[in-house]
Amino acid sequence: MAIRKLFKSIVKKIDPVPSEKDRKRSYTAEDYYNAKYPKLNITFPRYELDAKNIRDSADTAFSIYHCDVRSILNTKNFRLPLFEGKTDDERALKVIAWAMDPVLAGLVPATALLEEKMKAGALIYLSDEETTAWNRSNLNKLNNDWMHAVLNGEEVDILLLLRKQQEIVNEYWSYSYQTFIRGYGDCEDGAILMYDVLRKAGIPAWKLRINVGYVNNPDGSPKITPAGRDGGHAWLTYYVESQFWKGKNREDKWVVLDWCNGKKYVGDITTPLDEREKWSADIYDTDLMFSFNEEYCWSTSNNGKLEFGGLFHIEGCPVLSGEIELPAEMKAALKTLGMQEQLFKQEYANDTLCTCKIDT
């Protein structure tokens, strides 16, 4: 009970109901919420098999770009579905019902085959580890191959394994058209897709935010494992239109539209949005790393540090300042081995230049 009371008090402090003074100071809810939190420009890594950097070795297969997080939202696509309704709330509820993972929605059992799940819903949850060759699970497999060869005295192509290791990417954010065509994705992929579908439905950008942070245990405590904190997540929140700004007494709130996680509303595709509790009353940690829509990015990050710093970068980080060059001896060694440079560059920059990481 004590933990619950503490959690509620923290939520109230971080996500307070606007006061009468707020309404007088801000002409609209849009004005108020756009100005409520500090703004911060943040990038995410984008991997492209495009025209490579001509300075890289001939074996480099892809390029890494640090893109403004806002740039991945509201990409136009006539193929995305169009949802109609009398109000924004009605349209938003239809979108979350459409996007909800079919297992969570109770449409198929968790043991159903992948093909059955995809037939039952428009979108199913699969982590990056299951959906791309550039992922951490492949790195684990490579490490297992190394260990198996060492323990059993087997011959192994060391150079081949080294080259494969340089194609491992830990996080990949998809544009909405990619997730929509595939029919599956990670948490942020579905959140980005829903954002674009909601925008196509006519819901304004200021009423939508993608949040990056953690989900907690049901009692509000952090998920802790031997390797550190667990529960990293991205989810969409939606502003329920309030009469508060028109001088009437109605609760002002943002609710969660989470297609693959949650507690109170996990799998819920029927409860009207204006009857739901604030997102901060659920298992989502209110100490966000950052949140964003297509217009702004907000963060209460202290001293320009992010818990996922190195993956994400803040404006002003030296990693973003210009072309990263490896030391000549390292560059020559990679060329001799026939290995690509991009991920080496990334690790080198994060270790030697990045100022966004929280020191551990």
Model description:
With 360 residues, this protein is α+β, with helices and mostly antiparallel strands. It has one domain. It has twelve helices and twelve strands. The strands form four sheets. A five-stranded antiparallel sheet has the order 9-8-5-10-11, covered by helices on one side. Strands 2-1-12 form a three-stranded antiparallel sheet, covered by helices on one side. Strands 3-4 form a two-stranded parallel ribbon. A hairpin with a 2-residue loop joins strand 6 and strand 7. It is globular, with a radius of gyration of 22 Å. The model is unreliable at 1-14 (pLDDT under 50).
Short description:
The protein is an alpha+beta fold.
Order of helices and strands: HHHEEHHEHHHHEHEEEEEEEEHH
Helix and strand content put the structural class at alpha+beta
Q: What is the overall number of helices?
A: 12
User: Low-confidence parts lasting 5 or more residues at pLDDT below 50?
Assistant: 1-14
Q: How are strands sequenced across the largest beta sheet?
A: 9-8-5-10-11
Q: What composes the largest sheet?
A: 5 strands, antiparallel
What percentage of residues falls in helices of 4 or more residues?
Answer: 25-40%
Distance between the termini: 32 Å
Strand content: 5-15%
